[in-house]
Amino acid sequence: MRRFNYRAKDPKTGKIVKGAIQAETEHDAGKLLVEQGFVPESIQDESGGSSIFDRLINRITSKDKVTFSRQFATLIGAGLPLANSLKTVASQTQNKEMRTIVEEVLASVESGKTLAESFEKYPRVFDNVFIALIRAGESSGTLDEALNRVANQQEKDAAMLSKIRGAMVYPAIILLVIIAVLAFMMVMVVPEVRGLYEDMHKELPGLTQFLVWLTDFFASFWWLVLAVLILIVWGIIQYKRTEGGRRTFDNMKLHIPLFKDLFLRLYMSRFARTTEMLLAVGVSMLDSIHIGMKAVNNVVVEEQLAKAADEVKGGKALSEALEGKDYILPLVPQMANIGEQSGKIDEMLGRAATVYETELDEKIATISTMIEPILMVVMAAVIGVVLGGTLLPIYSLVNSI
After folding, report:
1. Cα–Cα distance between 32 and 35 in angstroms, integer?
2. Which CATH superfamily is domain 156-401 in?
3. What are φ and ψ of residue 155, in 5° steps?
4. What is the DSSP letter of 302?
5. Any idea where the domains of the chain sit in the sequence?
6. pLDDT tens digit string along 122-139?
7. Cα-flanking dihedrals φ and ψ of residue 2, to 5°?
8. 42-51 long-range CB contacts below 8 Å, 24 or more apart?
9. What is d(CA 121, CA 111) in angstroms, rounded to the nearest whole number?
10. pTM of the model
11. What is the pLDDT of residue 310?
């Protein structure tokens, strides 16, 4: 699909409309505009002029999605018509890519499509949970409530990702310091020690010889090392995109000693929160489970939730279907059972999600605290080896004089 900027006339109002539309060819873009009731005046291919830098600058972030959902919900809740709400949001959207999509959604809605159908054209931006909530909100007349739920969940997801990334900042800095110190010692100090021993016709100690060999190897074959690293990273990325690769990595997440509890709580909070939102706006139990398991984003856990969905379809209660599954934490079926008895299953799942979100915060803080001393020990060991291979030979020379 290519993107075309267009200028067209609306025969109903006589106004000139500008925007962007996605199509295979310029001719197809013109046909789409005509189908939407516009008279095209100019259509220009935008894809040729958009650089990688432009695409990075205009990348749609979680913040852009949250802002859109919140603004849209506020306008709908204030009683503004759907088309006017979309126009207002588009005019206030700073991100060029997001503004273009909102304008295209507006054109689709004005051509007679439902809002959910219009959003479905952009799965990269609007996921299954978003679409399901919008569809339920449209049918029940609670679109503003559905949008607010989406925005709340998007904010929680963004905050959680920010905490996880924040916890990794300090370890990343420590690793960079280790690499920088190692590079400095290998480039600046080790050659000097070698030169000193050569001048005095002395044989280098074993550790120093190893460091010298390592320095010479990287100096001569840095390009080979870089190429191998790039190939390894590329190979891992390509393998991860395959079905088997995704399963391998998702299975690893559930068995890494330090991180498995964190990932399990993340998956359970996602499932419980998503299912709670969908049930609250009137989505059926089976559809809520199927969409909720996709929100988990782990194929191994998804398979267990899919089995639970099949059991629910066969007549079992959700709590009974979730019970006894390896990667379903006990609180979810327990709260579901309470919800089934009280008639408030969505509320009980929401409480389970809140518990796991709180525990997730604690796990992130604990892991961050544990990683720091481990990295300090690693840094001390690496620097100790390098210093042992550079300073000890100097002391040996001094004592031999």
Report:
1. 5
2. Type II secretion system (T2SS), domain F (1.20.81.30)
3. -65, -40
4. H
5. 1-50, 156-401
6. 888 888 788 888 888 887
7. -110, 160
8. 42/6, 42/7, 43/4, 43/5, 43/6, 43/7, 44/4, 44/5, 44/6, 45/2, 45/3, 45/4, 46/2, 46/3, 46/4, 46/5, 46/20, 47/2, 47/3, 50/3
9. 14
10. 0.70
11. 93
